[in-house]
Amino acid sequence: MADIPSIAASVSSLKQHLETHRYICSDQIATAVYLAYHLRKPVLIEGPPGVGKTELAKTTAEMFELPLIRLQCYEGLDEAKALYEWKYGKQLLYTQVLKQTLDEVLQGAKGFAESVKRLHEFGDIFFSEEFLEARPLLKALREERGCVLLIDEVDKSDHEFESLLLEILSDYQVSIPEIGTVKARHTPPLVFLTSNNTREISDALKRRCLHLYIPFPDIALEQRIVNARVPEIAPQLREQLVRFIHDLREQDLKKVPSISETIDWARTLLLLHADRLDSELVRNTMNVILKFQEDIESVQPELRSLTDKAVRS
């Protein structure tokens, strides 16, 4: 079991352990995780797609050796899919059994009132823990050792869903009408919410969270990331491909390459036994880093100059 207090003893210790798990990050990112752990506040992580927002939550769970519970958000996500729902099939089956034994249940009942009381007791059973299907949010509250709860792409959900999150993130508890209030067991979950800024997150939800914006890394940091993820690649090629990616991000593209695509390209070039960039190699592997044909076509006239610049720098 991970020695969590030791790992989270300082920002530098936490950053070192993240890097041990191949998540290379800035001091700002490590500080956000450190504060989230000690203050037990959720972290709202914003930034462009592919900069490591989701990966930060995954790596934190791995580093602390805690379960990762993930809720993928989408338009129309509701309480039944995010929090809990009742096992209607099981309730129906038990109802059929009750019908078959109804005479036995009511045997000896004195009057209508007592008969109703006995049936009411069975009704309470149907809305008990035994018939409750826990979804990610409720599972996170009920984890004995605590967990990392990843609420991914919260900006894709509706404003109504944010209202549900407010209760949970305020006191780490939720009210279920038929059962009562469910509170976090022992240790509240460590919560990460990610957003790609497709819509504005409400002020109320932002107030509940620490805010972290992850931009694209600078050249030096991205080279360290590539080295951690693809250590076999030659230093010269690593420097060239990262410089090329950074210049490519300055172009007018529909989708600029993310860090994950930088890593994929490094693995591709390693697989092709490349030791340096050239325009032909870049042209043949452009589909690894650019995912729209119009982007590939738009950079073709600049391909040689971009490659030469990356090699000469």
Structural write-up:
With 313 residues, the chain is of the alpha/beta class. It folds into three domains: 4-75 and 140-213, 3-Layer(aba) Sandwich (Rossmann fold), CATH 3.40.50.300; 84-132, no CATH class; 219-312. 54% of the residues lie in helices and 12% in strands. The chain has 17 helices and nine strands. The chain has helices spanning 4-7, 11-20, 27-39, 53-64, 79-82, 88-100, 102-106, 111-126, 136-142, 159-171, 203-208, 219-229, 235-248, 259-271, 279-289, 293-299, 303-312; strands spanning 43-46, 68-72, 84-86, 132-134, 148-152, 173-176, 180-183, 190-195, 210-213. Strand 6 (173-176) and strand 7 (180-183) form a beta hairpin. Helix 13 (235-248) crosses helix 17 (303-312). The two termini are 46 Å apart.
